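User: I'm putting together notes for a lab meeting next week and I want to include a structural view of one of the chains we've been expressing. I don't have a solved structure, so I'd like a prediction I can at least talk through. The sequence is below, exactly as it appears in our construct file.
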Amino acid sequence: MSTKLNIAVIMGGPSIEHQVSLNSGANILTGLDPNRYNILPIIINRQGRWLFAPEYLNGENINDQMAQQTTQALNFISFSKPQAITYLKEKQPNVVFLALHGEYGEDGTIQRLIETARLNYTGSGSLASALGMDKPKSLIIFRQHNLLVPNFVVIETEQWPDHKEKILRRISKNFKYPLIVKPANRGSSLGVSLANNLTTLYQGINAAFDTSQHILIQEYINGRELTCAVLGHEPQVIALPPTEIIPPAGSFFHYQAKYEAGFSQEITPANLPTNLIEKTQEAALRCHNILGCHGLSRTDFILDAKNRLYTLELNTLPGMTKTSLLPQAALAAGINFSQLLDKIISAAVKK
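Assistant: Thanks for the context. Below is the predicted structure for the 351-residue chain, given as structure tokens.
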């Protein structure tokens, strides 16, 4: 009988996506094959403290209820960041499974920390993670590689208080409504709004600045919302079946639409002709490779009425909750959640 791998699952973090990350982490705890892995849950709380379970757990004993209780970190051992990295190394995990989202977890920060400990971890390296999290930079890179991206402008928080009227005039002159307003370096559609006029643009900018110091004003592309995940490691990188997301009429794929079951209609594989399915998969693979991603990614697109595919953003650590799109796409490809986790861990081992 083969020896089990030790898997440390890190979730939580200080970002505004803390709760989504805990939900991803809890789902991963229940999905890991107990015959293959010993599991060490680790919670990073909102204050940045690392909370370790007292010992590796046997996955056979982790059901949904226990996983949710685990995310409360009761009786966990608490460390500051420097102590935590030392302790993590002492626990000798074969792979650190990153169930983090947003800043600190998805922007290259945690990746650099774990690299200093010389441990294997899931997902992309620190550079690709940082590029994926920075929407303007990644969009510029995609455009340089001849991918279509919506026109956009970036506003910094220090520009806004003293130059509001000038900025609004410039946007109104150069763009047509409606517009998408979003934080430039956040995920889960937090702080995203649709502006149909000057008033809602002003409100959307203020709301976006509540979650980030850098925001993106982007032309709205009217079309079908698609997302396509990529899985594996070189030379076995595959694009999963793309998903079409149909939000409620008059809405878009905001936070509630992403994480509230039944709020949006999600169709996997997308109801598209074969050539457009392949076009979307090819674009997702290109985006993954252009940024140098590893293990997994998920890229969001809009397909307009002329079948032009616009790239919106790439996620290096897609959600792994019960309603998340990557597990749905994997299942459509015949890969159940436990097998999906196996593949992500295998890619980390071979990084």
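A couple of points you could mention at the meeting. Confidence is low (pLDDT under 50) at residues 253-259. The radius of gyration is 20 Å.

User: Perfect, that's what I needed.
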